């Protein structure tokens, strides 16, 4: 009887062990779709129609967090859209999309899809596409320069922030101009100092403009710098 109980216990224990699930590594695949509705402003220079055979440069402008949402007119509060609304004339097209998510990062894939569509349907010189952004849009501009290193002829970042390792992925042939206020409490100037320093060590062509006694709104002075637009127009990709 004793031997029978021992055998029965062994069989029950074996069955319990075999019923336990083993760890597994499964393969799978899922096709995802990311759809985002982007409102935007598209500015044409005054001679776009008269110079019908000419291709024009284009500036992609990415706004800051305060202009995010679903009210497109908000874009006119800062940067080139504000200057256009006040009567400023620019010598190139300007594409200014709006991030619809107030608390989320820019969807840079959606932005580049919009950019490519605008370029395909307008007389844009693909070798003279410029990228700029302020604050959150400045960070997104850094990101786009990393993700699409052969798309932009020049980059201008105003009080943006970015991981320093991004420097290794940015095209060395693309000139960069960084602006930042020394009294910025939202995004400290150290964010730009560190990135600029790393880029310069790696041999990048980087200009750095610091504004003493200026806080986070360094974009006011930066985008009123006429030399910025002359500098942009001097840049053209060779490949």
Overview of this protein structure:
The protein is an alpha/beta fold and 239 residues long. The protein has one domain: Rossmann fold (3-Layer(aba) Sandwich). It is 31% helix and 18% strand. Strand 4 (124-134), helix 4 (136-147) and strand 5 form a beta-alpha-beta unit.
Descriptive terms for the model:
239 residues, alpha/beta, Rossmann fold, 7-stranded mixed sheet, 7 strands, globular
Quick structural summary:
The chain is an alpha/beta fold and 239 residues long.
- As a percent range, the share of helical residues equals 25-40%
CA radius of gyration is 26 Å
Mean pLDDT: 92
Give the number of domains: 1
CATH topology: Rossmann fold
Number of strands: 7
Q: CATH superfamily, please?
A: Alpha/Beta hydrolase fold, catalytic domain
Report the uncertain regions. Answer: 2-13
DSSP summary: helix tally: 7
Broad CATH class: Alpha Beta
Beta-strand residue percentage: 15-25%
Organism: Maribacter arenosus
Pfam families: DLH
InterPro entries: AB_hydrolase_fold, Dienelactn_hydro, Plant_Biomass_Hydrol_Est
Protein name: Prolyl oligopeptidase family serine peptidase
